[in-house]
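[step 3/7] fold_predict: job queued, chain A
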Amino acid sequence: MKDKYPCFYKPGQKLLNPLRFDAISDRKGDLQIGLPKQIKKEEISYCLADTNLNSFHSNHYPFLLPYKGSLKENRHIKSKACIFVTKNAETSFLHLTSIQRQLNDIVFEMIELAPINSILMQTTVGKNINTTPQKRERALFTLWQKAISLVYYQEHQFYYFTYGMSNVFRKKNKKDIQQCKFSEKVPRLFFLEVDKGDYYQLELRFKIARRNFIPYEFNTAFFINSRQDPLTFYLLGSFAEYEVTSFFAQHKFKIAVLKEHYKNEFKDFVDRLRELYEVK
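[step 4/7] structure written:
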């Protein structure tokens, strides 16, 4: 499929300010794998509850949801309906592992911080009404950093596009949820600066080990995923990298600039990116 025409930078247009970014990655390496994945006939699985942050109706940041369901012998979901486990739900009969108990504590904090719309915050997470979106974003990213090594060890991981917070706890059919994977790998961002004749095009890419990937057009906040495998999610190395990725995601991960405009603010922007990332 042919790529769409890129978004062009216009002089005076607001750019990301990478000058304040010091540490690009808080995670120095991939997760250390050592714990066995535990399997039960009746178990809790976890869903990545996601939505489009650019939509007026999509009013929450990504968070995890515990899901209760029976499994067939071939490990496929047996339940006809998805039942999400809430903070006040009875869970003693589930025989949770120690990892799942730790993860659930983090998950319930995520759910309180996730709403963006102030009305939803008043009805669902009153204690966070006075926190700013920026503080909630940072707090949520910190929780994801704690959760990623725990959710990785869960036998089943799912993706659930909610279409907004008000839909989250309604009963869902299992077809609404897709199996996904949380990777233990830390993505490395880099950029391509492509000469297109009359203009340059700056494209965001990421690297896993020695493989290069094109980001998936529909980006999930705090993560990056690829066109090649959009249901494998890589948690970004730091909150700063989330801000970089979020900025480029608004432009479908590529920004074009006419050569006559490649100066002043835009040149300073690219020069700073060169200090922080590889620009090819």
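[step 5/7] annotate
The first strand starts at residue 7 and ends at 8.
The chain is about 25% helix and 25% strand.
exit 0
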